What we know:
Blueprint: E1 2-6, H1 11-25, H2 34-39, E2 44-50, E3 53-64, E4 67-75, H3 84-98, E5 103-109, H4 113-118, E6 122-123, E7 128-130, E8 133-141
Parallel strand pairs: 4-5
Antiparallel strand pairs: 1-2, 2-3, 3-4, 5-8, 6-8, 7-8
Amino acid sequence: MQLREIRWGSREFAAEVELRYRLLRQPLGLWFSPRELEAEESERHFGAFEGRRLVACVVARPLGQGAVQLRQMAVEEDRRGRGVGRLLLDFAEAELAGSGFTEAVLHARETAVGFYEKAGYAVDGEPFEEVTLPHRLMRKRLTPR
Ligand SMILES: CC(C)(COP(=O)(O)OP(=O)(O)OC[C@H]1O[C@@H](n2cnc3c(N)ncnc32)[C@H](O)[C@@H]1OP(=O)(O)O)[C@@H](O)C(=O)NCCC(=O)NCCS
């Protein structure tokens, strides 16, 4: 498996959007607007590949003051439970720490809180609803390795 950054607007970015749509939006009856995808040019995109097949992705949105929001984390259904998500998360965090970010925050679906806790994230505050699902705000300090 290879971990690498995906360039916005590339063919790999199109595969990333397809994966995110199929795994995160379509099941909720939601989609991406062209404006939403255009705004992602200013974000960082990371992927896990098996050969040319994209099997997992995560997006990082700079928030200012050293903070970055990780979002749209998804692993192909037939590749879950094999450490792919954790490897990709570790890779994205290391790249972002290397770029000077000092804190990662995210809105975790309640069902994924345990995954992020294992990776060192802590819940902050009360549950809230986003894209029709209960979520928790989670935080982790990033340190360059
Ligand atoms: C959540 C998700 C990204 C996890 O990816 P994954 O590749 O299956 O996770 P990994 O195999 O790397 O798991 C790493 C560790 O977290 C644990 N873990 C994985 N998913 C978990 C979950 N939903 N709840 C609790 N623990 C979880 C694993 O057991 C493993 O523990 P270990 O280190 O003790 O063995 C993946 O299941 C997914 O894409 N889910 C659907 C979309 C989604 O919910 N995305 C997150 C939106 S916030």
